[in-house]
Amino acid sequence: MYYAREPGKINHMRYDTLAQMLTLGNIRAGNKMIVMETCAGLVLGAMMERMGGFGSIIQLYPGGGPVRAATACFGFPKSFLSGLYDFPLNKVDSLLNGTFSAEMLSSEPKDSASIEESNGTVEEKQTSEQENEDNMAEASESNYPKEQETMEIVSQDPKYKEPKERGSKKDYIQEKQRRQEEQRKRHLEAAALLSERNADGLIIASRFHPTPLLLSLLDFVAPSRPFVVYCQYKEPLLECYTKLRERGGVINLRVSETWLRNYQVLPDRSHPKLLMSGGGGYLLSGFTVAMDNLKADASLKSNSSTLELHKTEEPAAKKRKCPESDF
């Protein structure tokens, strides 16, 4: 439905490309997956459906919060949501550097709550001023009896609504703070899962450039695990391919594109449809491997030293003497 009506919301990802992502990423029950997607939660919902509520998924999101409009349409039970975590993308660098702390998350909800309280007071003042102006205009223009006018003005006076509005506002603020505290706890749990650096796979399907995302998130994936990157265009994936080859630590790199063709099947009239999609995006897939730089450097040095020794020990080539000829 998204691809047929609003493909821009899912970065023009076709359904066969989504199936290829789930297959290449080895999405199965019991996995610990990392996903970074800006496809309205479509990739996240597909992963949750295939995992069946077993395992854990850590969603990295840019901005203020994760977007899960398409995930809500799947109708998952609450048991599926217990293994779903989210973590802000701007805190990933602090996790990699080892400077992440709980204070970085606890400072955000208080500031947002104070901003909401100040915004709420300003909105209340503006609404009360507008209601006063409307009441004055109605009282001057209406032709009803005086008793009815006084009753309407009294019923519409904001002073009589203040206790209820204040109580509801306090409850709203308390509920908001409780949700923010729960969200902070979930963020800490997600940070603990990411810091273990033993994820079973990585899926990236976002509108951002894939190279910095993949290079930073690959450190959280365990060796011998798959990763899949989706992009609408081929050039960013080619750049990402070259960067990964220079970095090392990955094998079986492949940039692929699936081709889909619809057929009309009717008696004596079966043929490919004339109108079909031109492209469904490109995929970069591969596997992670362990990198031991120190051991590799030591082995290279030892091999080079042995080669040098062999070169020095070898005798110099003997010159062939030409027979002397008498002229």
UniProtKB/TrEMBL annotation:
Source superkingdom: Eukaryota
Keyword Protease carried by entry: no
Transmembrane parts of this sequence: none
Region (Disordered): 106-184
Keywords in alphabetical order: Methyltransferase, Nucleus, Transferase, tRNA processing
4Fe-4S is among the record's keywords: no
GO molecular function: methyltransferase activity
Compartments in which it is found: Nucleus
GO cellular component: nucleus; tRNA (m1A) methyltransferase complex
Basic and acidic residues compositional bias, start-end: 158-184
Example GO BP: tRNA methylation
Broad class of where this protein is predominantly found: nucleus
Similarity comment text for this entry: Belongs to the TRM6/GCD10 family.
Name of the protein described by the UniProt record: tRNA (adenine(58)-N(1))-methyltransferase non-catalytic subunit TRM6
